[in-house]
Design a protein that fits this description.
The protein is 77% helix and 0% strand. By secondary structure, it is mainly α. It folds into two domains: 1-35, no CATH class; 51-260, Orthogonal Bundle (MetI-like fold). The longest helix has 29 residues, at 222-250. The protein is flat and about 65 Å long.
Length: 261
């Protein structure tokens, strides 16, 4: 009874077991609402499951691999570019440039697709450029804020150890904020999956799960659309979990620091 009260009380710390029960209950409740929903346009779980089997036989697995590889490639390129530009903000000359690039996140893709099409020589390159741009502008914004928020005391501490300024940047900004870089990456990696349908709809030469999703949506096959969406969601969650594991492997100190705080 006390645990039930704690769950509905603000700013309470609950046990891990209570969290598991709470999450399980909410998942069952959502499934119950989905199963008995009176909405005509919402496919039932059985219909989605059947559509998933049919789509899998039509090559959904191969299309997922194609899209997953494209997304990983875009995330890798965006990560390198964004981290490089964010770290360069320690140099005053680059701060206005990075600020300008971060503002590009407000731009619509309408019109930009033509620009990226002129830059690319293949459909794969065009899709890659579009995904890299979509992820980078948000990744750069978040990472630049991480670099700017490093406490001045950490720089001063490194200088007292007789480090030169470049060594200070390496130790304090790059190594010291590595856990935050992983966290920003996790938050923005999902952007690639959100933009995937659009970029694969622009260039359909390689196929991909986005192309399959657009085809099913065009013919109003809602059960197939939901099946593909659920598959993308599960794959995205697996990707997010994998990035979380990498953060724990390379930055095991991060969670310890949070616990002490």
């Amino acid at each position: 009874m006390n645990q039930a009260i704690e769950v509905f009380s603000p700013n309470r710390v609950i046990s891990k077991q209570t969290v598991r029960w709470m999450v399980g209950f909410q998942l069952v409740l959502l499934f119950f609402i989905w199963f008995f929903s009176p909405t005509v346009f919402l496919p039932k779980p059985k219909e989605v499951w059947q559509a998933l089997g049919e789509m899998w036989m039509e090559g959904l697995g191969g299309e997922l691999i194609t899209s997953f590889v494209l997304n990983l490639e875009a995330i890798a390129v965006a990560t390198v570019l964004s981290l490089l530009m964010a770290y360069l903000t320690v140099i005053p000359f680059f701060r206005p440039i990075v600020t300008l690039l971060s503002k590009l996140r407000f731009l619509s893709m309408v019109g930009l697709t033509f620009f990226f099409a002129l830059m690319s020589t293949t459909g794969h390159e065009e899709k890659l450029y579009l995904l890299v741009f979509s992820v980078s502008v948000f990744f750069l914004t978040g990472m630049a804020e991480v670099v700017a928020s490093v406490p001045k005391g950490e720089f001063d501490l490194a200088r007292t150890l007789r480090m030169n300024e470049w060594r200070v940047v390496y130790e304090v900004v790059i190594l010291g904020q590595a856990d935050q870089a992983f966290e920003v990456l996790r938050q923005n990696a999902a952007m690639g999956w959100m933009m995937l349908t659009m970029v694969e709809g622009i260039s359909r030469s390689e196929g991909g799960v986005g192309t399959m999703l657009l085809n099913q949506n065009k013919h109003f096959h809602l059960s197939a659309v939901f099946a593909i969406q659920v598959t993308i969601l599960l794959l995205g969650l697996a990707q997010d979990y994998g990035l979380g594991l990498l953060r724990e492997v390379f930055c095991p100190y991060a969670d310890l620091t949070l616990e002490r705080k």
